[in-house]
Design brief:
Chain lengths: ~190, ~190
Amino acid sequence: MNQVPLILASGSPRRKFLLKQIGLDFQVIPSDIYEDFSLRLPSKDFAEHFAKLKAHSVANQFPDRLVIGADTIVVFNNKILGKPSNKEEGTEMLSWLSGKTHTVITGVCLELKDQKICEIFSEETRVTFQHLSKNEIQNYIETYNPLDKAGSYGIQDWFSVCVKKVNGCYYNVVGFPLSAFYQKYKAIISTF
Amino acid sequence: MNQVPLILASGSPRRKFLLKQIGLDFQVIPSDIYEDFSLRLPSKDFAEHFAKLKAHSVANQFPDRLVIGADTIVVFNNKILGKPSNKEEGTEMLSWLSGKTHTVITGVCLELKDQKICEIFSEETRVTFQHLSKNEIQNYIETYNPLDKAGSYGIQDWFSVCVKKVNGCYYNVVGFPLSAFYQKYKAIISTF
């Protein structure tokens, strides 16, 4: 369905997998943006801010391509959780989230610099966990080493048994809101 | 994590994939049960009834194994939708569901005959579709030929862009409620 060359400005294997799932051809050029968690912004603005920075940094090098930037965060008790820096932090995050409901937000920026197109949006999904035992958390952290995932879990691996309920876009929790993206993408390519 | 030999009494490649995702070892022995859609039962009872029949038919041959039977249906406007019998029926189903919310129910039966264990339960998930154009429906039916799927769609393929929102267990929509299953499975194996 591609009508303009696409670049995914993200090194996430999950985002790559999802875009392939919907039949898109694209190049992967990860941005070099560092996500600064000390930045004080409302959570939606935070995710959109970094999605925008990621898209911008790659769009500046490839102004004739449609560049996709995305940033996924987990929000619990008004605290933004990114990727854990080590196993201890991962264990702590899962203990907080056990038996509770949190929000996953992915900010997305679609930029085609030459055409002055820059669409920014975000998608929120509520996720409710089962109660997790200490053993389950420890086994999960040791076996799956989810240090590359916001909130320290992958809803698409063994951890799926721990997710009681999703309210919103499931793929947003994996790392990219396919349905919301597709609506924006359709609107952009319809203008060519 | 297996502590008792498991049999999946279903030929569905999606159920097989999901049970592998959570690290289970199992044998696949599809039941030969015919799903009779003329049977008048409330939708939850319908799905549980056929899950039970599927598990029973295999458990009778393998009474010392834990047999998993499952049946997934789509319910819209009090009508039960199974797998479409041809492309025209598939197209009709997607036109009904376009822009609306429907319910996916999977009935599950876990039977270990020798130990007189027979757990039956079901899981319901609400699914909201984007508005689908005639073109999108036609392309999807022609390209993906979803005749082996209840409701005529696969939430895990291209169709993911058409699903606006899920409320409940996502994997239930794929064909097997992983989280609810795991809770029951843990309870059963803890008694050995």
